[in-house]
Design a protein that fits this description.
single chain; alpha+beta; Rossmann fold; 2 domains; six-stranded mixed sheet; five-stranded antiparallel sheet; 21 strands; about 25% helix; globular
């Protein structure tokens, strides 16, 4: 590409088809669930750098039209896994398949540019001296220049950016740059889309709006989508399924509500919010905590740790008719947050203050005494030996 102008397009015939046509012209609905031979599959993936394992035996399949969020703390291996799927890294062992076709395995490695995978990174990587429409058209390899420009314009229009087609990246806001990068990734009709922290560079208010627009557009694309993030709230908002990683291993894969309501380990429970924890022993298939009794499936006498979701705690006034016998707490601090108030409570038998948000209307004041009712359905009990 010349340093002083837009990309040069070959002059041969080009016809819109498949995904680009449905998005740009018809605004097609989300694709139905695929059969086993379609989508993106990672089978038995292992990877190491200088004998240090980074990915350890990952199996994962993403269907067409599905958004899967790879979630986990920094350094857990999620970006490495994404790069392996894209062909930017060659795995130490295992296979990568797209629509049932092996693109990486023990005896085969298809180069990334031949896999037809759309990539979008957190810095967007737009060409700074190239107009938006030509940035979008850069990945199109067939068609006359006018036809490629038309395709790019249709995609930009679908994302509400037709009026900025001739703008340069520095003339666009962060959200507009993000959408141009998304259009560029989708323009060549990829068989899968891979996104690495695509919203991390946006401020909080803009992030929410751009994320909503992107979510709608990605669902319409009808291809398997893997989105890497370390933000649990972002994954809950965007994902059809979440794959949570820890130290190179998938620790739980499922719908967002499954990971929140039925965490498989203390790590999973804590990843979706700071939860107060109480230690105890199982007696009669339950464990007593300073704020109430929680059911436990562990064996009798087992040392356990009980995690409590904030919404599991309800407050009653000291004099309420149904407050008798419930644990008491004293309000240490009460801070208004608009529609809610943030409370810190002192609970007998628990050294750390209990924090929770309650409706601002009628929130207790400092030094008030309240009673606590615990909803056992929103408590998670694990053997203490798991929480290392």
């Amino acid at each position: 590409m010349d340093s002083g102008g837009p990309p040069r397009y070959p002059d041969n015939d080009f016809h819109l088809h498949g995904m680009t046509r449905s998005m740009a012209i018809d605004g097609a609905a989300r694709a139905p669930a695929a059969d086993a031979s379609s989508g993106l599959s990672l089978e038995g993936i292992h990877h190491a750098y200088e004998a240090a394992p980074v990915i350890r035996g990952v199996d994962l399949a993403v269907e067409r039209g599905e958004i899967l969020c790879l979630l986990g703390p920094s350094g857990c291996g999620k970006t490495t896994l994404l790069r392996i799927a894209a062909g930017l890294e060659r795995q130490s062992a295992g296979r990568v398949l797209i629509d049932g076709e092996e693109v990486a395995g023990p005896h085969l490695f298809v180069e990334p540019e031949k896999r037809r995978i759309g990539l979008m990174f957190q810095d967007y990587a737009l060409f700074p001296h190239v107009r938006a429409v030509d940035n979008v058209g850069f990945g199109l390899t067939n068609g006359r220049r006018a036809q490629r420009r038309d395709t790019a314009l249709r995609l930009l229009g679908h994302l509400g950016l037709a009026h900025l087609a001739d703008a340069y990246p520095h003339e666009l806001s962060g959200g507009e740059q993000q959408r141009v990068a998304l259009a560029r990734a989708l323009a060549p009709e990829p068989r899968a889309m891979l996104l690495d922290e695509p919203f991390s560079g946006l401020d909080e208010r803009l992030r929410e709006r751009v994320r909503d627009d992107t979510l709608r557009f990605l669902h319409e694309a009808g291809v398997p989508i893997v989105l890497v993030t370390h933000d649990a709230d972002e994954a809950l908002l965007m994902a059809d399924r979440i794959a949570l990683m820890q130290e190179g291993v998938l620790v739980q894969v499922g719908r967002p509500d499954e990971l929140c309501r039925r965490p498989a380990s203390p790590f999973v429970a804590r990843f979706f919010g700071a939860l107060p924890a109480f230690d105890g022993r199982v007696r009669g298939r339950a464990v007593e905590t300073p704020i109430g009794r929680a059911p436990a499936a562990c064996s009798e006498g087992c040392r356990v740790r009980v995690y409590v979701r904030p919404e599991a705690v309800a407050l009653l006034d000291e004099g309420a008719a149904d407050a008798d016998g419930l644990p008491a707490a004293r309000v240490l601090d009460s801070r208004p947050l608009g529609t809610t108030s943030h409370l810190k409570l002192a609970v007998e038998g628990h050294a750390a203050p209990l924090t929770l948000n309650v409706a601002d209307d009628g929130a207790p004041r400092v030094d008030d005494v309240v009673r606590i009712r615990l909803d056992p359905r929103r408590t998670f009990v694990f053997p203490a030996s798991q929480d290392l």
